[in-house]
Specification:
By secondary structure, the chain is an all-alpha fold. The chain has one domain. The protein is built from ten helices and no strands. Helix 6 packs across helix 7 and helix 9 crosses helix 10. The two termini are about 20 Å apart.
Length: about 210
């Protein structure tokens, strides 16, 4: 059994990973088949309209602000001015302190208010129009394997509305990384590239439980 630090999406809690694969395929592929248009959220993981994403890993850019709109949020002009210009150096330093992207499951230490990731998140909360949800999506844009996307829907499904990052880290590491391995297997069976992180699969399964309940 996976650690009880989070509540698993129903398709994982049932132990039926075949259903989880179907849900992931529906999110990433079936909208295109049914409507001829890709679901906006399915563009999130690969979005790089300026071809500079790999270079700008420690800098918030205008393209990041475009990317978060694919997940149905936006930063207003005042927030963009603060993020990209007025406090640009501060946020760049915080991103550098986090270090390179890596899988959340590999973080052995508890994530606390003193952790660089937590400090970046709380700093972002002080920017106009950026609250908890948008902050999580901005950080996930820069460190997609390390930082899970949060919003009200995902928090409700996973039971992480009070705390999100640390409970997910604990759940991924529990029982010899059982949940992490399951998420990777679901991703592979759904024929998604490794650029879609394991924690993104968890996000999609939680999100689709509400949008397309099974």
């Amino acid at each position: 059994m996976t650690d009880s630090s989070i509540r698993l999406p129903k398709v994982l809690a049932s132990g039926d990973d075949d259903s989880a694969v179907d849900v992931v395929r529906e999110y990433f592929y079936e909208a295109l088949v049914k409507t001829g248009r890709i679901r906006s959220g399915a563009l999130w993981d690969e979005w790089d309209s300026t071809s500079t994403r790999q270079r700008d890993v420690d800098v918030f850019t205008a393209d990041d602000l475009v990317a978060v709109t694919l997940l149905s949020v936006s930063v207003d002009p005042d927030g963009a001015q603060v993020l990209l210009r007025e406090r640009h150096a501060e946020f760049t330093e915080l991103l550098r302190e986090i270090g390179p992207d890596r899988d959340l499951v590999d973080e052995a230490d508890e994530i606390t208010p003193e952790s660089p990731t937590w400090r970046l998140e709380t700093a972002l909360w002080t920017v106009p129009s950026i609250g908890r949800t948008i902050a999580s999506k901005l950080i996930a844009r820069k460190r997609p394997r390390l930082y899970p996307v949060y919003d009200r829907v995902v928090g409700e499904v996973l039971g992480t509305r009070t705390a999100h990052l640390e409970p997910i880290r604990q759940a991924l590491r529990a029982n010899d990384r059982e949940l992490h391995h399951r998420l990777v297997t679901v991703r592979e069976r759904a024929a998604l590239p490794a650029t879609v992180p394991a924690i993104r699969i968890l996000d999609v399964l939680a999100r689709m439980q509400v949008k397309s309940p099974r």
